[in-house]
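W.,

You were right to be curious about this one. When I first looked at the sequence I had no strong expectations either way, so I just let the prediction run and decided to look at it fresh. Below is the sequence, 177 residues in total, followed by the output.
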Amino acid sequence: MSDEQNVIPNVIPTEAEGRAEESLKPDQCSNCESLKTQAEEYKAGWQRALADYRNLQKEVASMRSQWAQMSEQRILEEFIPVYDHLKLAINNEQMASDKSPWLEGVRHVARQFDGILKAHNAEEIKTVGEKFDPQLHEAVIEEESEGKAAGIILKEVEGGYKMGDRVIKPAKVIISK
């Protein structure tokens, strides 16, 4: 072996190295307070950023839910007039007693429409005999009526629908004076 390979490294630090190590000890750090303050500021900033991110995630989820409800409502708004016309066609006086297979098929389609509306949390607004509510009903005519208090709905002109607490289409009604 050569002499260079047999040399044992110096494990005892030199005097200059020892002083450098001593200056790095945490209890003798010259700018430790400023570093601690800076670390606390970084930590607080990180926590605020994390909280902001979580709030943003919640807001985006809420907005997505609202958008889904709005699109569902728009689709239902387009189908409701078709359902109303179908009900008018099968519920007129001439068709009431008709039991033909064709008409029974059309009544079945109307029941399917009704089921779809219920599945999407849409329901018809109650009208006849109820007290007029301007948030749910639209009065088209006021009529005198014996034995009825003012503001009671006498007849439904056009059905109304609501989805949860939101009115999709107000019911058009005739009310008593």
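Here's what jumped out at me. DSSP finds three helices and six strands in the chain. And, maybe more interesting for your project: The mean pLDDT is 84.

Coffee later to discuss?

I.
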